[in-house]
Amino acid sequence: MINDELPIGATPLTPDDANGLIPKHIATRGQLDQFESRNIQQGLLWAMKTKRTPSDILNIDFCLKLHKQMFNKSWSWAGQFRKYEVNIGNIPPEIVAVQLKNLCDDAKAWIEFSSYPLDEIAIRLHHRMVYIHPFPNGNGRHSRIMADLLLKALGQPLFTWGNKANLTLQSQSRVDYLAALRLADKGDLSALLDYART
Ligand SMILES: Nc1ncnc2c1ncn2[C@@H]1O[C@H](COP(=O)(O)OP(=O)(O)O)[C@@H](O)[C@H]1O
Ligand SMILES: [Mg+2]
Predict the structure, then answer these.
(1) Best mutation site among 4, 11, 77, 170 for ligand 1, i.e. most ligand atoms within 8 A of its Cβ?
(2) Most buried pick, 66, 76, 88, 129, via CB within 10 A?
(3) Could you give the number of structural domains in the chain?
(4) pLDDT tens across 34-70, in order?
(5) For position 60, which CATH number holds?
(6) Which atom of ligand 1 is closest in space to residue 168's alpha carbon?
(7) 107 and 182 assigned to the same domain
């Protein structure tokens, strides 16, 4: 069931990871989406209630803790890195941690030296994080919240992400979002920046 009716651009779970589903009553993709959404709302409340600096957010510990808070009721592997290859980004699992650390360090340097506008720093963080794909699942949702938390820490308004019109499901908004990510894979961030502020 877990890999049935996957939204476009979603990563299928391995049988091992699928076994990590905590609620036992879930039988459809719709139920799973709903259950995860409630869990994510709780994680979001936890994340938003504390005032944090960019350095509080841009480190591996915080990335893991946020994923755990978003998915702790849903998946036994919440807050743990994936252990196998995926076809987004092609980053081998052994180097996920070091890649994520490099990304956090880069983002801190971009802020310190004003290398890019603040929106672009947050979007670069989001894009490279989904490209690294640290987790078995939830990478899109986690890295969008990471970008929003960084904006909050920088005193900027949060992104609207195409008005979040069902970004996790099949929708025109999701098609536009994935097209923008693929352009960003080639180094052109303009469509993703527009999307995030729509
Ligand atoms: N070509 C791509 N380049 C970069 N990121 C991508 C690409 N295709 C998909 N993604 C990202 O991967 C996410 C899907 O990974 P997944 O772990 O299933 O996240 P979630 O469960 O939160 O949707 C998408 O939401 C998107 O953010
Ligand atoms: Mg997914």
Answers:
(1) 11
(2) 129
(3) 2
(4) 999 999 999 999 999 999 999 999 999 999 999 999 9
(5) 1.10.3290.10
(6) 23
(7) no
Starting from the CA of residue 180, give the closest ligand. Answer: 1
Cβ-based neighbour number of residue 155 at 10 Å:
7
Question: Do 77 and 108 sit in the same domain of this protein?
Answer: yes
Question: Is 43 inside any structural domain?
Answer: no
Identify any residues that bridge with 75 across adjacent strands, giving them in sequence order.
Answer: 21
Structural domain range at position 97 = 53-157
Across the chain, how many H-helices and E-strands are there? 9, 0
Indicate the Cα dihedral angle 102, 136, 85, 28, nearest 10°: -150
pLDDT band at 30 (very low <50, low <70, confident <90, very high): confident
Name the residue with tokens 């603040």.
118
Q: Are residues 127 and 152 in the same domain?
A: yes
Kindly report, residue by residue over 78-133, the tens digit of the pLDDT: 999 999 999 888 899 999 999 999 999 999 999 999 999 999 999 999 999 999 99
Residues with CB under 6 A from ligand 1: 9-11, 88, 130-131, 137-141, 168, 178, 181-182, 185
Residue 33 tokens, joined: 């989406």
